[in-house]
């Protein structure tokens, strides 16, 4: 049996978890592509927003409910990647900061890819603020869910290992001990 890499979730449950994460990741990315890359039939389009925070300021100028809806949509669009990317990787022992940075960069690259693809889609306008908000959503989802989930999975794994050791000791019985024998005179 090959040795597992340290820090990886092991066993059939882990494989199911990774496969489920991968399938959910593909399904979510397909949904995001359908949502963001469909051509829109509009009479006119705004110019691309290449100034950071200009679109956010414009949304905030529209008032609370509209701004919360628009900003919330942008934050929530790619937020599931913050959980699904680490889920497909399957590591339990990893630096929380490194995991957050790696996941946020992956989310930023996905958002940048969408932004670049939107330049060729009729009716879609690239917006740098969408990239910033999408990346913030990925990082926020990761920071709120993944560290706690990893702690829970590590504890669960340790409990199972401990129970398996106790079961093994119970089936094998106690190791026999021999009384000390003194040295002959």
From TrEMBL:
<keyword id="KW-0472">Membrane</keyword>
<feature type="transmembrane region" description="Helical">
    <location>
        <begin position="130"/>
        <end position="153"/>
    </location>
</feature>
<dbReference type="Pfam" id="PF04892">
    <property type="entry name" value="VanZ"/>
</dbReference>
<protein>
    <submittedName>
        <fullName>VanZ family protein</fullName>
    </submittedName>
</protein>
<feature type="region of interest" description="Disordered">
    <location>
        <begin position="162"/>
        <end position="185"/>
    </location>
</feature>
<keyword id="KW-1133">Transmembrane helix</keyword>
<dbReference type="InterPro" id="IPR053150">
    <property type="entry name" value="Teicoplanin_resist-assoc"/>
</dbReference>
<keyword id="KW-0812">Transmembrane</keyword>
<dbReference type="InterPro" id="IPR006976">
    <property type="entry name" value="VanZ-like"/>
</dbReference>
<feature type="transmembrane region" description="Helical">
    <location>
        <begin position="97"/>
        <end position="118"/>
    </location>
</feature>
<feature type="domain" description="VanZ-like">
    <location>
        <begin position="26"/>
        <end position="144"/>
    </location>
</feature>
<feature type="compositionally biased region" description="Basic and acidic residues">
    <location>
        <begin position="162"/>
        <end position="171"/>
    </location>
</feature>
<feature type="transmembrane region" description="Helical">
    <location>
        <begin position="21"/>
        <end position="40"/>
    </location>
</feature>
């Amino acid at each position: 049996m090959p040795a597992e890499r340290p820090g990886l979730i092991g066993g059939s449950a882990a494989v199911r978890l990774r496969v489920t994460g991968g399938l959910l990741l593909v399904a979510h990315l397909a949904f995001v592509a359908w949502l963001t890359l469909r051509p829109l039939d509009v009479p006119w389009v705004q110019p691309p927003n290449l100034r950071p925070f200009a679109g956010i300021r414009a949304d905030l100028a529209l008032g609370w409910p509209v701004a919360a809806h628009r900003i919330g949509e942008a934050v929530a669009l790619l937020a599931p990647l913050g959980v699904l990317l680490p889920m497909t990787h399957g590591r339990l022992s990893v630096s929380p900061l490194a995991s957050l940075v790696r996941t946020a960069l992956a989310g930023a690259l996905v958002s940048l890819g969408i932004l670049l693809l939107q330049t060729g889609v009729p009716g879609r306008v690239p917006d740098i603020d969408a990239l910033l908000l999408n990346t913030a959503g990925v990082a926020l989802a990761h920071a709120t869910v993944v560290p706690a989930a990893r702690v829970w999975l590590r504890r669960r794994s340790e409990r199972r290992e401990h129970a398996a050791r106790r079961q093994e000791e119970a089936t094998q019985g106690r190791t026999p001990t021999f009384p000390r024998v003194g040295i002959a005179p």
